[in-house]
Amino acid sequence: MSTALAILQALFLVLAAPLVRGAVGRLKARFQRRQGASVWRPYSDLIKLFQKEDLIPPTASWIFRSAPRIVFAVIVTAAAFLPVFQTTALAGHRGDFILFVYLLAIGRFFLMLGAMDGGSGFGGMGASREALVSTMAEGPLLLAFVAVSIVAHRPAIAGIVEWTVGQNFFDISAVHILAFTTLGIVSLAEAGRMPVDNPTTHLELTMIHEGMVLEYSGPSLALVEWANAIKLNVLLSLLIALFVPWGIATQLTWQALVLALGSYAVKLLLLAVLLAGIESVIAKLRMYLVPDFLGVATALSTLAVIFTMIAKR
Amino acid sequence: MGWSSIFWTFLILLGVLVPLTQLGTKTRALQAIGIALLILGIAGGLVLAAVCLWTGLSISIRLPNVGYFPVSLAIDGLSALFLFLICSVALAVAVYSSSYIGRHYEAVEARWMWALMSPFVLSMALVVTASTGFAFLFGWELMTLVSAGLILVEGDAGDRIHNVYIYLLMMHLGAAAVAACFFLYWPSAPGLEFAAIRSSSAHLSLGVRNALILLAFLGFGTKAGIIPFHLWLPRAHPIAPSPVSALMSGVMLKTAIYGLVRFAFDFLGGGPAWWGYLLLAAGAVSGLLGILFALQESDWKRMLAYSSIENIGIICLGLGASLLFWSYRSPAWAALALVGSLLHSLNHAYFKSLLFLGAGAISDATHQLAQDELGGLQKRMQTTGVTILVGCCSIAGLPLLNGFVGEWLVFRSFIAGSGLSGAGAQVILPLFVGVLALIGGLSGACFAKAYGVSFLGRPRSQGAENAREVPWAMRAAMLALATVCVGIGVFAPVVLVPVSQIAGGLVGTLPPSSELQFFTVMPRMGAAILALVTASLAVRHRKRVAATWACGLPALTSRMQYTATAFTKPLRMVFVRVYKPDRKIEVLPEDLPYFPASVSYRSVRTTSFEKSFYRPIVERVVGLAHGLRLLQTGNVQVYLLYIFLTLVGLLVFLRFAR
Amino acid sequence: MEFAEVAAGKVVSTSAVFLMMTIVLLAVSRRVSTAILVFGLQSAIITAQVAGTAFLESSREAWVVAGLIFAFKVLGIPYAFFWLVQKLKTSRDVQAVTSPAQSVFLVVLMIFVSYAVVRSYAFGIRVPEDALAAAVALILTGAYLMVSRKKALIQMLGLLVLENGIFLAALTTTFGMPLIIEMGILFDVVIGLLLMGIFAFRIRDTFEHLDVSRLRKLRG
Lengths: 313, 658, 220
Description:
The complex is a heterotrimer.
Chain A: H1 2-15, H2 17-31, H3 41-51, E1 54-56, H4 62-79, H5 96-117, H6 121-152, H7 157-165, H8 174-190, H9 209-213, H10 218-243, H11 254-281, H12 290-310
Chain B: H1 2-23, H2 28-55, E1 59-66, E2 69-75, H3 77-104, H4 107-129, H5 133-153, H6 160-183, H7 194-200, H8 206-224, H9 233-239, H10 242-267, H11 273-296, H12 300-327, H13 331-366, H14 377-380, H15 382-395, H16 402-416, H17 423-455, H18 462-465, H19 472-490, H20 493-507, H21 513-516, H22 521-538, E3 543-545, H23 564-574, H24 576-579, E4 582-588, E5 598-604, H25 608-629, H26 636-656
Chain C: H1 2-28, H2 32-57, H3 60-88, H4 100-125, H5 129-148, H6 152-174, H7 179-207
Helix pairs in contact in C: 1-2, 1-4, 1-5, 2-3, 2-6, 3-7, 4-5, 5-6, 6-7
């Protein structure tokens, strides 16, 4: 039962990802006083793309076609580490958040390679900027995880969720506030959202992720876009699981599961509203200001780790 | 027993027979037999090391005394691990060289290369299996001399003599420090047998122990390439032939790590906390600066040389954490950190030698090593490309490959540092997670650039355009190393078990087995990812080859792609304080700036260390030497005066010393 | 009213972390208007803290102080600053000596130092060390702003942040500061700011800029 639920969790993260993306897009449109596209639009986009043909540049090697698939496979595997409805996940072990972060790194690495295989300037440009952003984002990401793990005295993601559920919500600890802010900033950078990257741009001046996927078409493009949506969903679910997991099912009864699904949906919606708000209010940062932005995240995460010793709560 | 005789055969084959067949005769057949004997000998050594490593067997043989010094060799756990490392890499390199050397060198040079490669491998084996000080120092010195000889086989054009000179100078400074380490034990363990040294360490005073660790750090650090003793590395490794670079970078640096572990853990048995902090600081500096300097290089070999410095930094981080845990009486975690360091040494040997052999293959196929002149090689050299991709992914620390294993263990031990009760270490160790993450991120960027710019996209020069796949021997060697990288990455417990035994033996407690169980998830995860990828690739979609949109231009040229320099520009701008580049833009004619006839841009990138750290030291030493020159007047009577003054001084001293 | 008590207690104890974050935001802000807004936010947090303390200690004086701080520092002073910015028509940049990334790290170091300093002291006199450390960090940050920013307006702001820190330190060590002392300090600061404002106009009119580093040219 527990394993079936874990598989269901991972599938949910993968399949619900375009819906989350559609919801964020619709909320942004509403902020801008537009109607906005339907929240189911990304699904129809994906279906349309899967039916088209794959265009491959003549100079490309096998990496060009394999990169989107590797990226997709890796992010789906990473989704298996997250507890969503119950406190355990499909995979999990002491120290698994390091593996989680480095699985995301595999995806990035191959996305960069695939971009450079296209043979155009846009791919190299996107890859070079992505290298900048991801290098600066990896430190704070791991440090925030470490800080939360130290406070919870558990070395695994599932363990942290279990510990947090047992805590009182109003006992907010400084470490958690700092780690939440850090992970929020890093999620914006990793998922390619404003103010780090504009997900809807086609101007080369503002492209990071778009630059890397510019040459893809058809099923390859569908897989890459889906993988990006899954990444956003995974990061949002990570924020929920690590910091506000109350409502998650600690026993496997039907009421608990329904409550878990409901509370998760509400929390995800709130985070989507917050994300849409941030994207509508804050302008995209100039590229050479992004390291400063991530430097703030690094400083906050360093503070979080220092606080684990000072303010043991 | 039978194993000792295998060891003897190994020594004699490599030390005597192979060089004899190369240099002693002129018949090609005998030389070919010599090469085969070399490969056979190394394979024998590999089998021996594997047996000792996995069954815990230990062997010792005794050689005749040299003067006053006893000479004996022994293979215990730590030696077996490093002997395994040496022999496995040397085997791949030997197979690779059997084709590479023939293609690139004249007959005379080729014979000298084989004749010197054999004692090179032997010297490294001597260093790790020595069980007396004399054998160790003999092997140490032989390593330096033979590798210098191997570099010089290629000739002494241009800067080469200067670089070899610096190499020899720094190696001998390091060797002096190492020798001093050994001779500090002379009063308590005459003969310098390792067993005697081990037992006498307990009785040494704290001052002597501190001196020992500092000398060991200096001596072994110079050999390993820890910043600031690294100056010789980027000068010596790129000018050596590729197989020799592979051996130097992959294996020779590890003998220094072996020496450091032997001294700090085995002989001295750990020490005060500042030892750990010293190694942590050195590791962090080497790791960060090494990878930052590697980022700015666009020549394959120089980049790989700097990247070796970075990986040595990571190994030192693990060793520092281990010493710190041991000083705070947490031996289980100390063992885990030590396992991480030892395993990373092993893994680095494999992927670094793979990458250096790959660089040799690139230069063989395209006669170029500058990344900005390559491109599109993956379509022209399929197998080589895949093996180099495996090497690049391993060095970036991606999971399912061996680089991740050592790094995960070091990360895990840093996080466990929060459980210590000492105020400093409790927060400092987890903060190093950020340092290691930054190093890992930078190395991922560096090698994505290297592989992407060289192998993907369009070829940027004629040489790259005409690249052809290299001969099977070279490919076989690289494939073997790549398979080992993937194998250790997915099936890590195979090597984890013996290495944790070794670490447990050194520190006193085995590492926590629950941590080591982590790697059992790798095969399942790898299978899942592989299944997903093959399933999605196998689904039949319509494909069409179509040219990339060139924004309205007739076609894209290779010059429109990003170069290696362009790729790293954002990162170099962020870290501009480290690089301090020297830039000069000249627009001619000067009085008509808006109508330029020519614009020239000159950028000199040096590693800031040479300017700010070494030059003042060099200038001070030279100044001192100049000062001492005043004593040398050339006048005989002044020299007689010196003798007279010494005599008077001695008489005065004897009068007042009563 | 138990919930209100718990909430008040929570506000008082977690406001230290939010103050740390405003400190980091101040270090990273590149525009004068951002810095003023962050200052307003900081003062609001301190107001909440005073209100919470007032509720817990049931002290009427503290309620008055909270009202005063709200009126002056959250509404009055930021408004005055925005008016000054508009009148002076200077550039929007903060003209920092150090880059934002370096400023952030220096500020983190200062927070660490303030915690280290307060640790041994706070245990002895039974005060919440978070709030006292935040106060010391505010003082250090105010001083840092005055030192590292070349624009006179930001130096004034730094002085105000410093005053915030002093006030917070007094609040935590005396559990509700006597009204008269707070009035005195506030009066001092207002007069000082008035003078600096006047001088800012004079400097700008005479030299046509507000860059204090260029005042060096006045020396003989």
